[in-house]
Design brief:
Blueprint lengths: L1 E11 L2 H4 L6 H6 L13 E6 L10 E5 L7 H9 L2 E9 L14 E3 L2 E9 L6 H6 L14 H11 L6 H18 L6 E8 L4 E7 L8 E3 L2 H7 L14 E4 L10 E3 L4 E6 L2 E6 L4
Antiparallel strand pairs: 1-4, 1-10, 2-3, 2-4, 5-6, 6-7, 7-8, 8-12, 9-10, 9-11, 12-13
Helix pairs in contact: 5-6
Keywords: Glutamine amidotransferase, Transferase
GO molecular function: transferase activity
Protein name: Class II glutamine amidotransferase
Length: 278
């Protein structure tokens, strides 16, 4: 459906990953070997926490319905700013219209969210899930995607206090309501959520055949493995990225996130936890 990446670490120019990597996100928007769709040209989004905001407050967003490879503003912005944590997403629309309000990432206060995948046959139980969103949050749903409803459902269920627990409750609700409507495998996707300091990334589907998800190996280990790879010097020791598919072809540079897993990334590094594992 889509491709995305999330970076956390020392502040960098986002263009380093979004535009300049061997198999950058923009390159994936044109040719995505591991994606369900080869081309992801139905708009994009970029969200970032500013370098000089030590409180990691409200992130900035840039959305466009143009293909990522065609947008000069994306190049200008990602080269002009530096950020210690940012999201980027390229979209292949699976039904909802191509409009800015349907582009990821989505934002609520200091939280960002993005999704690659879908809620199967969403239209048959869209009303049930939307009406389960807290009335105070409902006006913040500006688009028509299943992803935005899922985000606000998780917020309703306590995302800001317990991201993993709230996301589990939201996904279980999707599965319960979807199956009541005759949908065998309601949930499909990889998800990214952040409050500006910690990054939670989820890989889960009702069928157990989830879209691909990888994270980078430790920079220190990669420098030992590839001492002549000058590009690694662009990154600090805490630099880490979670991606729909690897950004280069270096063996060992990217590690696949297991099925039914949440990978939690903070200043201490990665931690895996089972997520709704059967």
């Amino acid at each position: 459906m889509c491709r995305w990446l999330a970076y956390s670490g020392e502040p960098i120019q986002p263009s380093t990953l979004i535009l300049d990597a061997q198999h950058s996100l923009v390159a994936q928007s044109l040719n995505s070997p591991l994606g369900a769709e080869t081309v992801n040209g139905d708009g994009f989004g970029f969200g970032w926490y500013p370098k000089d905001d030590r409180t990691r407050g409200i992130p900035a967003l840039f959305h466009s319905i143009e293909p990522a490879w065609h947008d000069e503003n994306l190049r200008e912005i990602t080269q002009a700013v530096e950020s210690p944590l940012f999201f980027a997403h390229v979209r292949a629309a699976g039904g909802p219209p191509i409009q800015q309000t349907n582009c990821h990432p989505f934002r609520h206060e200091n939280w960002m969210f993005m999704h690659n995948g879908f809620l199967s046959d969403f239209i048959t139980y869209k009303r049930d899930l939307t009406f389960a969103v807290d009335p105070s949050l409902y006006p913040a749903i500006h688009g028509t995607t299943d992803s935005e409803v899922l985000f606000h459902l998780a917020l309703t269920l306590g995302l800001q206090d317990d991201p993993i627990g709230a996301m589990a409750k939201a996904v279980r609700m999707v599965e319960s309501v979807g199956r009541e409507k005759g949908v065998a495998f309601p949930m499909q996707g990889t998800l990214a959520v952040s409050n500006g300091r910690t990054l939670w990334t989820f890989r889960y589907s009702s069928q157990g055949q989830t879209r691909s998800l990888f994270h980078s190996a430790e920079i220190s280990a990669l420098r030992e493995l590839y001492p002549d790879a000058e590009r690694l010097n662009l990154f600090g020791d805490r630099a880490r990225v979670v991606v729909s598919e690897p950004l280069n072809n270096l063996p060992g540079a990217f590690i696949e996130v297991p099925e039914a897993t949440v990978a939690i990334l903070d200043e201490a590094g990665y931690e895996y936890q089972p997520f709704l594992a059967s």
